[in-house]
Design a protein that fits this description.
By secondary structure, the protein is α+β, with helices and mostly antiparallel strands. Helices cover about 35% and strands about 25% of the residues. The strands form three sheets. Strands 5-4-6-7-1-8-13-12-11 form a nine-stranded mixed beta sheet, sandwiched between helices.
Length: about 375
């Protein structure tokens, strides 16, 4: 059996209120229709605060940012300029995140790490974040390194599946999984609805998980990994997508995404549980990727869940927004450390992304 021994999260920079962020976005346009879009998208988001590595989103900061000249006038940075920030911030933040994860995981030290899996869809460089972690943590040069790139919001679950497979193949393996998503680097000035919605929900966040076949320490809260399943709602292939443009990565997030997820989610979840030999009827805790309030509303309705069943997802959305792949690990961390989570309790994790892909994982809480 494989365990997620610890989940560590890191939200960079101070939290900015959604109302302040709305004001900043309103300051970028005089178009009345776009301003109405912006106000409604922020008001309906279910988000209270979000984080960003950028000074551009601090109303009091005198420092020019990538979206703002020194004289205060606005600009649209190139993809290269945005990615340069990603590189610098990844090299600064990932060692802090990973170091904290290892320090706070009883029974696992730096010398135990055999595999590193890095995940991101918001920036790239090579030699990449995997080698950055090897060098900054002093890991063995023989550590196996893997990068899952540009998969989107669901990528943490395939990363955990990969870690699980490594540990089942080699019971001595200890896998460090990291997700770094700096979504605010790709804010778009376009007034189209997709851009307005993306600007209102995406945020920056990092998360790490340590996975191995070792038994968790006596005092440690952990998840035992039971099952993974993948599904596709192919009718949504054009409704959620990332595209690389000259001024950043452009998000396509149509208003139909929540409806498409709602139409296909029950069949995919039922198939996942059937393959695991279990029933979804016994699950009272669901870790649902909070891609937006409408997605959570739809999943709750389609699966006949109670509000408390997805409370951790709504709380994560409210406090942090949508941090792409890192977000589901924030939700799982909240579930794991909730005093109400019982030993042996089954948890279903769901995440969504381009394709339209629906990834599922069934986990069992280990609470001493």
């Amino acid at each position: 059996m494989t365990f997620i021994h610890h989940i560590e999260t890191l939200a960079p920079g101070p939290g900015r209120t959604q109302s302040d962020l709305c004001e900043i976005m309103l300051g970028r346009t005089d178009d009345k229709r776009t301003r109405r879009y912006i106000k409604k998208a922020h008001a309906d988001s279910g988000i209270q605060t979000r984080h960003s590595v950028l000074a551009d989103f601090d109303k009091e900061s005198p420092v020019p940012g990538i979206f703002r000249h020194a004289d205060g006038s606005l600009k649209d940075p190139s993809t290269g300029e945005r990615n340069e920030v990603f590189v610098n911030e990844a090299k600064r933040l990932l060692p802090e995140l990973a170091g904290r994860a290892i320090d706070r995981c009883p029974g696992i030290g730096v010398d135990d790490i055999t595999h590193v899996i890095t995940v991101s869809c918001t920036g790239f460089f090579n030699p990449g974040p995997d080698l950055c972690l090897v060098d900054s943590l002093g890991l063995s040069s023989a550590v196996q390194r893997y990068q899952l790139g540009f998969m989107g919001c669901y990528a943490a679950i395939p990363a955990l599946r990969m870690a699980d497979q490594f540990c089942r193949a080699d019971p001595s393996a200890v896998v460090l999984v990291t997700c770094i998503e700096l979504c605010t680097l790709h804010m778009q000035s376009s007034g189209d609805l997709d851009s307005v919605v993306a600007n209102s929900v995406f945020a920056d966040g990092l998360a790490a998980a340590l996975v191995s076949a070792r038994q968790p320490a006596a005092s440690q809260r952990a998840f035992a990994i039971s099952h993974f399943a993948s599904g596709l709602a192919r009718e949504g292939v054009n409704d959620m997508a990332w595209d690389i443009g000259d001024t950043g990565f452009k998000m396509i997030l149509s208003k139909y995404v929540s409806r498409i997820i709602g139409a296909g989610i029950k069949e995919i979840v039922d198939a996942a549980f059937a393959a695991s030999g279990r029933s979804a009827d016994g699950i009272r805790t669901w870790a649902v990727h909070p891609g937006g309030r409408a997605i959570l509303d739809t999943v709750e309705s389609s699966l006949n869940l109670r509000p408390e069943d997805i409370a951790a997802s709504r709380e994560t959305l409210s406090r942090y927004g949508n941090m792409s792949s890192a977000t589901i690990l924030y939700v799982l961390a909240a579930v794991l450390h909730d005093p109400g989570t019982r030993d042996g309790e089954s948890v279903c994790a769901l995440a969504f992304g381009p394709g339209l892909t629906i990834e599922t994982s069934v986990l069992d809480a280990v609470v001493s």
